[in-house]
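Action item from last meeting closed. Structure (159 res):
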């Protein structure tokens, strides 16, 4: 059997960066206390330096799971309205979840950018249980559509 992974090229890098830049939601996979995986949907944005971030509540199961075990995976890319959903590009990120301290300059910078891309979160961003989680990407996998698979590094994503 031949290796289905293609050599990473500039077209793959551009597609992956575009998927990450345009994503407003992601599927987030965490590991629960019993080691079982759990997948949820979260809002997604980019930190000032381009790293993926989300805004989460301390009350959510996925936030508790990330604090117990910071290894996560994110999936971005929408299936689109037409055709076979498996032909649409998607990007999987493997990362470490890093909760950001509430308050301070970094939190304020993240909040400003977050509210520009997620204005409805203005209703709850200031709640005491809400904070940002930054994802430190260690590897990425791009499925650019049927027969177009690539392994990517954080540098390929501009991170």
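Sequence:
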């Amino acid at each position: 059997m031949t290796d289905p992974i293609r050599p990473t090229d500039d077209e793959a890098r551009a597609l992956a960066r575009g998927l990450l830049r345009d994503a407003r939601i992601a599927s987030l996979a965490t590991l629960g206390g019993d080691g079982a995986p759990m997948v949820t949907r979260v809002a997604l944005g980019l930190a000032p330096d381009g790293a993926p971030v989300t805004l989460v509540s301390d009350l959510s199961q996925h936030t508790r799971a990330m604090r117990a075990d910071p290894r996560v995976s994110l999936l971005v890319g929408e299936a689109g309205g037409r055709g076979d959903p498996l032909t649409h590009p998607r990007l999987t990120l493997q990362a470490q979840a890093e909760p950001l301290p509430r308050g301070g300059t970094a939190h304020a910078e993240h909040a400003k950018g977050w509210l520009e891309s997620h204005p409805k979160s203005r209703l709850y961003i200031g709640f005491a249980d809400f904070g940002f989680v930054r994802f430190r990407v260690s590897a990425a996998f791009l499925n650019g559509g049927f027969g177009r698979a690539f392994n990517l590094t954080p540098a390929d994503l501009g991170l």
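Note appended to the action item: The mean pLDDT is 93.
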